[in-house]
Design goal:
This protein is mainly α. Helix content is 71%, strand content 0%.
């Protein structure tokens, strides 16, 4: 193995930096893919359970409406837990992902959404929490 340049002796260091850069690239891509999966799940759940949240499951005490409300509440809480776990694994190098503060706010809003489904007069709270999740995760309406 020869010198990489004529002015100094850098044997092997260039290979290490390329390896490190490729590892960082792979980690960034994997992190972005994981974030997109979580974001897709949350976007789906916000739309899928919107009829329960905004039409007031709590006002229709039929068993199927109550069950759907419980499902929505549990799913929002699971989404918040998944997002919180993802935040804890983020490295300092994260492109195209909102900052940790916004992700924590989205997670907190999902918990609020979960708690508000069977709350009295919850329509405004549910709408506020859904909008907060959408804004912090940059979801389109």
């Amino acid at each position: 193995m020869g010198k990489c340049c004529y002015c100094c002796d850098h044997r092997g260091k260039r290979g290490f930096s390329i390896f490190t850069w490729r590892n960082n690239q792979r980690n960034m891509v994997e992190t972005l893919q994981k974030y997109k999966e979580i974001k897709q799940t949350i976007a789906f759940d916000l739309v899928y359970y919107a009829n329960c949240s905004f039409n007031g499951c709590q006002q229709n005490y039929k068993p199927e409406f109550i069950q759907k409300g419980e499902d929505a509440s549990n799913k929002y809480r699971r989404d918040a837990a998944t997002l919180s776990g993802f935040i804890e694994t983020l490295s300092w190098l994260k492109l195209f992902i909102p900052n940790k503060k916004k992700l924590y706010e989205a997670s907190r809003a999902l918990i609020g959404l979960s708690n508000s489904i069977f709350d009295k007069d919850s329509d405004m709270k549910i709408h506020m929490y859904s909008d907060e999740v959408r804004a912090n995760l940059k979801l389109k309406r």
